[in-house]
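dumping this here so i dont lose it
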């Protein structure tokens, strides 16, 4: 299978940024470090830049994958493992419906949707997904179209609705990525691939990049699973010493 090294490098950069962000998160919320900038807008922009890149890129790369069912199940199982582990060992920072659960679910649901979406013009699909993503950005707050439409409280009932994007009162997750709006961003990546393919731009993604960026990009899933326990152990050890 042909590798697109530029994609590996972009993903690798996001992986490194993610590890650094979570290390800072651990220092602030577990180690007691005071950092107003991290808890404010700069920290939010940093965090969003990571997830936006990951999800868009995952949708793009879905079109390149072959064993889509196995990959989707593996990533979804990884998300379930993260949720179970945090519920048992750190319930105050539990992760419910985190980014791995989203990505695994998106990979699986795109298998049947591909038959329909592949017939849609790529530019039209990309524009529609971008508009849907933007208009449902605050769905978890009970809003559509940037607050122009208020949704009924009856939609926000339980964990199933929380998975879809309608969390009930009192719901908490340290890493929350429901299907809406994030599936639309994944689908935007799907259509973006179609544009690259039609324009013959995929060849530009074959250029070799720095190995120190490509390697973490090729092992993003494994790094995601192990990095947080390692960071938490480092913070814990540092507090003891």
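and the seq i came up w/
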């Amino acid at each position: 299978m042909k590798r697109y090294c530029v994609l590996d490098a972009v993903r690798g950069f996001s992986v490194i940024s993610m590890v650094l962000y979570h290390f800072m998160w651990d220092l602030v919320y577990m180690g007691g470090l005071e950092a107003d900038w991290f808890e404010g807008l700069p920290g939010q922009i940093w965090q969003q830049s990571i997830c936006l890149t990951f999800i868009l890129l995952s949708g793009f790369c879905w079109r390149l994958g072959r064993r889509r069912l196995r990959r989707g199940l593996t990533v979804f199982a990884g998300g379930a493992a993260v949720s179970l582990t945090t519920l048992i060992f750190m319930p105050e920072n539990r992760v419910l419906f985190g980014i791995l659960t989203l990505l695994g679910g998106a990979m699986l649901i795109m298998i049947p949707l591909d038959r329909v979406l592949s017939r849609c013009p790529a530019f039209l699909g990309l524009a529609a997904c971008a508009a849907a993503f933007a208009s449902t950005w605050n769905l978890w707050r009970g809003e559509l179209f940037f607050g122009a439409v208020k949704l009924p409280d009856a939609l926000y009932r339980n964990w199933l609705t929380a998975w879809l994007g309608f969390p009930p009162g009192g719901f908490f997750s340290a890493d929350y990525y429901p299907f809406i709006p994030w599936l639309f961003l994944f689908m935007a990546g799907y259509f973006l691939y179609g544009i690259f393919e039609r324009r013959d731009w995929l060849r530009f993604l074959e250029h070799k990049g720095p190995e120190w960026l490509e390697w973490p990009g090729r092992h993003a899933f494994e790094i995601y699973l192990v990095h947080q326990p390692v960071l938490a152990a480092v913070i814990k050890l540092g507090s003891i010493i």
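Strands lie at 143-144, 149-150.
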